[in-house]
Amino acid sequence: MTHSLTIFTWITIGCWILFCSYWLLLRNKTKENIKVRTAKERFMGALGYFLIFSSLYAPLLMTGGIGRRILPADVVLQTAGVVLCITGILICIWSRYLLGKNWSGGVTAKKDHELVMTGPYRFVRHPIYTGFITAVTGTTLVTGGLAAIIMTLIFALGLCIKINQEEILLSNLFPEAYTAYQQHTRKLIPFIW
């Protein structure tokens, strides 16, 4: 193995266990979807999580190739990574809590869908994605693997596509309210984009 399990690594693993536990706990506590997600969509979502987590922790499993560590195992870099991971997971959990029964794993409307604009939704329209990208980036700084860096970039681009799909859906569901909401909040990065 090219990477040992440091305290930094353990903290990120703990963060992701917390994230996954919270998501699993609430996965069926949502309103009914107007359009049911297919088995293929659910499988692709699970596969995506598997690829993300295996890429993030590839340096723990591989000695070279795409799993090799390319970022230095620097205390400052890893401390920053832990702070980003913790912050990102907390943003995800807070945002998911506020969405409540309106949350969906896919881009779909719920029966009696509500537009949430409180908490982190005051600053960005997609704070779960903001938090997730932040946590993934933080974990990448801790593990430092090439696979993690590549997956972080691919994942961020994929989320941008999903964000555009969600923006269309929410604009159709809440034509006036969502347009007004878009005018005073950013998509993903507070005060920037």
From TrEMBL:
Gene3D superfamilies: 1.20.120.1630. It is found in: Membrane. GO terms for cellular component: membrane. It is a multi-pass membrane protein. Signal peptide: none annotated. InterPro entries: ICMT_MeTrfase, Metal_cation-efflux_comp. Its main location: membrane. Keywords: Membrane, Transmembrane, Transmembrane helix. The keyword Thylakoid does not apply. It comes from the Bacteria. The keyword Isomerase does not apply. GO terms for molecular function: protein C-terminal S-isoprenylcysteine carboxyl O-methyltransferase activity. It holds the Pfam family ICMT. This is Isoprenylcysteine carboxylmethyltransferase family protein. It comes from Chitinophaga solisilvae. The lineage of its organism: Bacteria, Pseudomonadati, Bacteroidota, Chitinophagia, Chitinophagales.
